[in-house]
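Sat 14:20. Reprocessing the chain from the morning session after the first attempt stalled halfway. Input below, unchanged.
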Amino acid sequence: MALKIIASECTTCGACEFECPNAAISIKSDVYVIKASGCTECDGDSPKCQAVCPVEGCIVQG
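Finished this time. Tokens:
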């Protein structure tokens, strides 16, 4: 299952976009979104986007 970004929590800092090894994160309508078909949750490792996100609970299981 892919991760998702809670739009109301996203500060559009951009940290997650550059950390994603699959380029599954992009900005749309002034917030970042995760393309579900591209997200592998970092193949069993700790998700890199969650690790760099400054907002607790912004990136969650989809």
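The radius of gyration is 10 Å.
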